[in-house]
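Quick one - first record:
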Amino acid sequence: MRSISWWSCFILALLHALPPLTLCKQEPPPLPVLPIPSASQLKWHRREFIMFFHFGMNTFTDSEWGTGHESPSLFNPTAFNVNQWVDMAAENNFTLVILTAKHHDGFCLWPSQYTDHSVRRSPWKGGGGDVVEEFIEATRRRGIDAGLYLSPWDRHEKSYGLEVEYNEFYLAQLRELLGRYGSISEIWFDGAKGKNATNMTYYFQDWFSTVKQLQGSINIFSDAGPDVRWVGDESGTAGATCWSPINRTSLKIGDANLENYLNTGDQRGTDWVPPECDVSIRPGWFWHKDENPKSLDQLLNIYYNSVGRNCVLLLNVPPNTSGLISSTDIQRLKEFRRAINTIFSINLPSTVKASSQKGGKDGGFSANNILINDKWSYWAPDDKRGGQHWIELGGGHDWMTFNVIRIQEPIWLGQRIKRYKVYVNGKILAIGTTVGHKRLHRLKKAVQAQKVRITILDSRGLPLVSAAGLHFDPFWHSLQGNQTQTPN
């Protein structure tokens, strides 16, 4: 038998002298608080900005709602270039653009087989053009997603008002759009209709089911979802309290009495149907020669009241009669994008601490998670400890000058926070209710502080925070007369 060497004996003795190896056990994440978003809804939330293009017969008749009796010969953009539209959107970081394939006048921007009221009968490209096709191809070239709007109200179609016949007609056009052009990320339905319009029952559930059959990962927008809901106004303003959950059984498309409910959502809602804020860069939805784009101040205010209140901003930029986006609109969009980048490119806090953290120091839910650029990390407090939960943002040895507070939740685990306060040196700086994907507070005056504490007063289950920040908005600051406040 081979003898054990002195070296082997030394190694064995050393191993016996060492303490037993302890493996680090990862703390499991908290259970979600239902409802939670689907994968396509979560992608939609993270876009924050999407763009609408209202273009069609109304562009050439200088109207907002056409009659349906316009001659197709009026549609003739002389310098049509949809690549210009999409390039402009992509260069300003919009990742989804939506086209009005058919508005209320019934004129179709594609050669539909089911109507004579389309580009096929227009002089544009000798009747051989297809705006929808060129639009989809342009989005693919730039690597952004496409959406379509097909108005349920059709003032041209003779079958409108005949329940079965019109619903069959509408579904046929829906199948053309969703079956002919490849992947579509969002489809837009609304209940807009004139006061004297013919009474008509839309088979929305049939339409929704068909949409999901044709496009499995698409988001459906309407007053009642099922994936994205209208915010209840066209000013780009969500409620100061704004829940993504809502009860779809309480909703009816086109019911104006539900606008307040749509605006705020429902903390007891059983369905995840987040709000989309639609607003035009101009006073009208279609291009009009005598209109100008909103000012930068107006657009920033819309941003804070939409993206800053748990919404996605759907900003309409209408092409003109030549088939191009006007230079004034392009310039304003560039200013808007630069302003957003200027405000949020720098996050002032360099340190963060919290009341507690789930799993302790190595549990994976550290307060430091809220300052790192990782879309899946978050802070979670210890659910076994009582008292209020809080996080404290610090500037180290430096004073932070800010006028914008940002708080975000990991909404893939549900929307939780119901009420919170923000303190500087024990004084209340801001009070809020819901957070959701993103909550922004724009202060009336710039504040100087070394530490800012966010205390969560109430939540659905354990409160979670995925990101937080303090930022300086020089555009708002200048409007307020360069006022700076230093709390005592």
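second record:
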Amino acid sequence: MSIVFVPKKLRGKAKINQETIQRLLDENDQLIRCITEYMQKGRAVECVQYQQILHRNIVYLATIADASPNNMPPSSNSTSSETSASTSAVNAYGGTG
């Protein structure tokens, strides 16, 4: 069973550290290997449960990354010409600016 699966009463109480993240990444690696093996054997139906676990793990890791204070957006040290060039590029592709 995935380490991400936690009973509702325990959710939000787990400590997120580098070891937990690494275990999830290792688990994802193994899940991908299992999925690939089953697909090569033509057993796509068996892949579904592993794909669901992999999806849950990836969403969990993305949630951790989004909530992490270490993932600050780059500082705005760009010059005004770089900023206007970026705005022009966005406007050229239909964005607003």
